């Protein structure tokens, strides 16, 4: 059996194969036949007994007719018969995508007897090289590591049936995903750290950088998910994208905290004091502008109180300013170390097979 494989993200794979079956039929032995006789006329092929085999895990099958019906029966003088036909089949493969795109897969192709029980028909692989791949075959997503053929037996209520299984051990090519998924998101995360080196007063710049990187990593994640089948469990790429999104979001959140501490609302001392009662009067409900118009002269006691509270405020502002700068300085070290620690755990875990 020689074949060409094509795998796609929908957990199916297509095979364009030549199925070769060989058996002996003593009824076709004839002393006058001295050379092999080839039959490729479909009407003549139908007249020869053939094993009734099918592919249990095939979802779709097509017989090849280009440019003629791709079928051949070769009858040898001793009664040996070679039956060859070309088929295009779509097989289902129960892929586990929990480690996608760092995963390995095992896909099977099954051949079984349809109507004859194991007492009537027994299927066996060819003793040497039963499954041959087309020379120069290359697949964009997978590399075939090994092919393991084996015999099997299926048991049903109506009897036991002979079957054959070919297991394809596949290793996904991760180069595409490194370039298209991992490296871009890694760069987006690193770019989000530039905010820690920008001045705290650069509100437009830091805000734009944080929001842009967050939108970029979200768009990258959506693009990746659009080309994958929907599954009910978390994949390795989901863990990566979720963590990168969390790092970018935390960088934006860090700027929000730092900016709040840097620009902590200053109490309007002058406004509060001017609304207080002067000369022992009752408290006024007038606004700051009304008091300023009505009493353009501020008492000395009020000015002293303003200066005292201004000094206390300046000390508080200085403390908040230093703390805000310290948070930026710590973030410059903490974020890269945390991201490297995540990578140190992520790659060994998902690359182990």
TrEMBL record:
Q: Does the keyword NADP apply?
A: no
Q: Which Pfam families match?
A: Neur_chan_LBD, Neur_chan_memb
Q: What are the TM regions of this chain, as residue ranges?
A: 181-198, 239-262, 333-351
Which residues are in the Neurotransmitter-gated ion-channel transmembrane domain? Answer: 182-263
**Any signal peptide, and if so, which residues?**
none
Q: Where in the cell is it found?
A: Cell membrane; Membrane
Q: Which SUPFAM superfamilies match?
A: Neurotransmitter-gated ion-channel transmembrane pore, Nicotinic receptor ligand binding domain-like
Q: Can you give the residue ranges of the Neurotransmitter-gated ion-channel ligand-binding domain?
A: 10-152
Membrane topology qualifier: Multi-pass membrane protein
* A GO molecular function held by the record: extracellular ligand-gated monoatomic ion channel activity
What are the protein's UniProt keywords?
A: Cell membrane, Ion channel, Ion transport, Membrane, Receptor, Signal, Transmembrane, Transmembrane helix, Transport
Give the similarity note.
Belongs to the ligand-gated ion channel (TC 1.A.9) family.
* Database matches in PANTHER family: NEUROTRANSMITTER GATED ION CHANNEL
The protein here is known as Gamma-aminobutyric acid A receptor/Glycine receptor alpha,Neurotransmitter-gated ion
What is the organism field in this record? Cinara cedri
């Amino acid at each position: 059996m020689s074949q060409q494989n094509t795998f796609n993200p929908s957990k199916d794979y297509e095979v364009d194969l030549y199925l070769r079956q060989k058996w002996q039929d003593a009824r076709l032995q004839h002393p006058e036949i001295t050379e092999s006789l080839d039959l490729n006329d479909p009407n003549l092929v139908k007249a020869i007994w053939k094993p009734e085999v099918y592919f249990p895990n095939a979802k779709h099958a097509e017989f090849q007719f280009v440019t003629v019906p791709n079928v051949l029966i070769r009858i040898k003088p001793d009664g040996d018969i070679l039956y060859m036909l070309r088929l295009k089949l779509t097989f289902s493969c129960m892929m586990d995508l929990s480690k996608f795109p760092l995963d390995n897969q095992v896909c099977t192709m099954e051949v079984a007897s349809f109507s004859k029980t194991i007492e009537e028909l027994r299927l066996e692989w060819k003793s040497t090289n039963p499954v041959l791949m087309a020379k120069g075959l290359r697949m964009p997503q997978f590399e075939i590591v090994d092919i393991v053929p084996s015999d099997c037996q299926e048991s049903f209520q109506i009897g036991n049936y002979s079957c054959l299984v070919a297991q394809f051990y596949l290793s996904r090519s991760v180069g595409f995903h490194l370039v298209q998924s991992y490296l871009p998101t890694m760069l987006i995360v690193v770019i989000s750290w530039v905010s820690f080196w920008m001045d705290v007063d650069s509100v437009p710049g830091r805000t734009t950088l944080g929001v842009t990187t967050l939108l970029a990593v979200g768009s990258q994640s959506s693009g990746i998910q659009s080309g994958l089948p929907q599954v009910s469990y978390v994949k390795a790429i989901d863990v990566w994208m979720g963590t990168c999104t969390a790092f970018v979001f935390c960088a934006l959140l860090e700027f929000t905290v730092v900016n709040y501490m840097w620009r902590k609302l200053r109490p309007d001392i002058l406004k509060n004091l001017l609304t207080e009662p002067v000369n022992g009067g009752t408290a006024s409900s007038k606004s700051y502008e009304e008091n300023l118009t009505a009493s353009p002269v501020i008492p000395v006691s009020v000015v002293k109180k303003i200066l005292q509270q201004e000094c206390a405020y300046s000390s508080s502002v200085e403390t908040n300013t230093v703390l805000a700068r310290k948070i930026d300085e710590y973030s410059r070290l903490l974020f890269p170390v945390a991201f490297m620690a995540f990578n140190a755990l992520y790659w060994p875990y998902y690359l182990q097979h």
